[in-house]
Specification:
The protein is α+β, with helices and mostly antiparallel strands. The protein has a domain of about 45 residues. It has two helices and two strands, in the order αβαβ. α1 packs parallel to α2. The longest helix has 11 residues.
Amino acid sequence: MLTAATGEEALTFFSRTHVDTLLLDYLMPAMKGDQLAETVRAQFPAARIETYDAAKQDSPLGHRGT
């Protein structure tokens, strides 16, 4: 598992390392998740992309604040 802080960093991982699945948040700094997904799909059409929104309370992977 690799962790990227930004969309640009995630693209660097994809270009250097074989990655099967990308799990990404829509609200990333500098590049939104949908922009990253489109870029990855164009360059790596076989990649599986799963998205979530950490800011939404009802998101399965989202933040669960108290």
